[in-house]
From TrEMBL:
InterPro entries from the UniProt entry: Arrestin-like_C, Arrestin-like_N, Arrestin_C-like, Arrestin_domain-protein, Ig_E-set
Name of the protein in its database record: 3865_t:CDS:1
Signal sequence residues: none
Coiled coil region boundaries: none
Annotated ranges, domain Arrestin C-terminal-like: 206-345
Entry superkingdom: Eukaryota
Bias-annotated ranges (Basic and acidic residues): 1-19
Gene Ontology terms describing biological process: protein transport
Record organism: Paraglomus occultum
Length: 467
């Protein structure tokens, strides 16, 4: 299917009636505005500039796009006088930008004439499209996190337009989530044991109340997994256990800087409960099952950054009843630590699951390349500011087609052929997107009747006997 993008388009009568508010421009991705970033991924799109018919022509020197990842946290503290203060702490993960169009017609490069005297071109009323392409390195950047106010890890795109005279106009920032590629290890029975005691004023004397033994199928899970476990309770006190409530909880801690007090924001994701009747000196087993939310934006993988830490726990509250005539209720709590990865473990013959180093271990950054090309020049990745290294020299495993089929089934998605952008550079009066002529797959998921469709393209490599 071919889409035609024109330099000038007649604007609707509804738009003509709107009051003139100056040029409007933003970013449209090839897969739609709903986009999920992953390691070793190519992003294609256009910067769309709209000039209404009742507006004056716009003198444009160049159009730039900025791609930035930032970790931020809000620190709350008190000054010497005891007054509450707050400070926003930010750390840049990467910040890259590129001129995608120039009035001097030097595309995909910095203008040779800088400053306020760079050439410009007069753009009349119409809709203009400036294509771009970005290659993400095979690196696990931090997961996108949206926490309480001031707590976030965001990957933002922003178009910037420079007019004659050096005036900059910034377009609206667009946030896209990033999901690192991490897999849970093979499931094995994992036992967590803890004894609950009754303490007195004499701390040397402790009386056993309940022996708790939790049996889980591992301690690392993934979004969409069924978290099934068994609680084995032994009652040692003179009463009975009547009720158990279990919940999966998400913890967001920050700031981690030693100069500021650290806050712990806790949220219950999913919970379940069971009634029981375990008398004194008896042991019984209770089985529980929780479904971890499927959306990565709700349950990002466990991560510890420079300012933010996100981790998960399984909280079990045991309710006990003491006395026969005048009963007294007691509640005891145990916290079981668990870890979430991006994807569940997949067992395949003649296939190695992909492993990516973190951005701290391998200092790689995304980089822009000519959108006319299907792939970056020489299939290379950007290494810092002055060096390049080839992907073939990296010890990185590629995912084969069977792995993608498994991920499609996990997310309830269908595997189809993916279109590729044979995009052109610069401002085009007529622009088309053709079909890919390479063997590839697409993960496509409908996120709602009114939402766009999310697509992520991957190259397929068949290993071993499947060649």
């Amino acid at each position: 299917m071919t889409r035609i993008w024109r330099q000038r388009e007649s604007l609707s009568s509804a738009e003509d009636k709107k009051p003139s508010t100056g040029p409007r421009f933003g970013i449209d991705f090839e897969v739609g505005r709903t986009l999920t970033l992953r390691p070793d991924y190519i992003v294609r799109g256009v910067v769309v500039l709209t000039i209404l018919e009742d507006e004056n022509p716009l003198c444009v020197c160049d159009v730039m796009i900025r791609f930035k990842a930032e970790e931020s946290v809000l620190a709350k503290f008190k000054d010497a006088a005891g007054l509450p203060l707050q400070e926003s702490i930010k750390s840049t993960i990467f910040d890259c930008s590129e001129f995608i169009w120039s009035g001097a017609h030097e595309i995909q490069g910095v203008n040779m004439q800088g400053g306020d005297y760079c050439p410009w071109e007069e753009l009349s009323a119409g809709v203009y499209h400036f294509p771009f392409a970005v290659k993400l390195p095979p690196v696990n950047f931090p997961p996108s996190i949206e926490g309480p106010k001031g707590f976030s890890i965001r990957y933002t795109w922003q178009p910037v337009l420079r007019t004659a005279g050096g005036t900059y106009i910034e377009g609206p920032a667009l946030v896209t989530p990033f999901v690192p590629t991490t897999f849970a290890p093979p499931a094995e029975d994992w036992v967590y044991k803890k004894t609950l005691y009754k303490t007195s004023k004499d701390l040397t004397k402790k009386k056993e109340l309940i022996d708790v033994e939790a049996v889980l199928l591992g301690n690392v899970f993934a979004p969409g997994d069924e978290l099934s476990f068994t609680l084995r309770l032994t009652n040692h006190f003179n009463g009975r256990i009547t009720f158990v409530h279990c919940s999966l909880r998400k913890h967001l801690e920050g700031p981690l800087d030693k100069d500021y007090p650290c806050e712990n924001h806790e949220r219950s994701l999913v919970s379940t409960e069971r009634r029981c009747n375990i008398p004194s000196q008896k042991t019984d087993e209770i089985r529980f099952s929780l479904t971890i939310p499927r959306k990565h934006r709700h349950v990002p993988p466990a991560y510890t950054g420079r300012h933010i830490r996100v981790h998960y726990t399984l909280r079990c509250v045991i309710q006990a009843e003491i006395g026969k005539v005048l009963t007294k209720m007691q509640c005891h709590e145990i916290i079981i630590p668990i870890t979430l990865a991006s994807y569940a473990h997949i067992t395949l013959e003649n296939c190695v699951l992909p492993t990516y180093l973190t951005h701290e271990e391998l200092k790689l950054e995304p980089f822009f390349f000519d959108p006319l090309q299907d792939f970056p020049p020489d299939d290379r990745i950007h290494f810092g500011d002055d060096y390049y290294m080839y992907e073939n020299n990296l010890v990185l495993s590629q995912v084969n087609g069977y792995l993608y089929d498994h991920l499609n089934a996990l997310d309830g998605e269908s595997s189809t052929r993916s279109p590729n952008s044979g995009s052109g550079s610069g401002m085009c009066s007529e622009y088309s997107i053709g079909e890919w002529n390479i063997d590839s797959f697409t993960l496509a998921s409908s996120v709602g009747s009114t939402d766009r469709v999310e697509q992520s393209a991957f190259a397929r490599q068949i290993l071993g006997n499947h060649m």
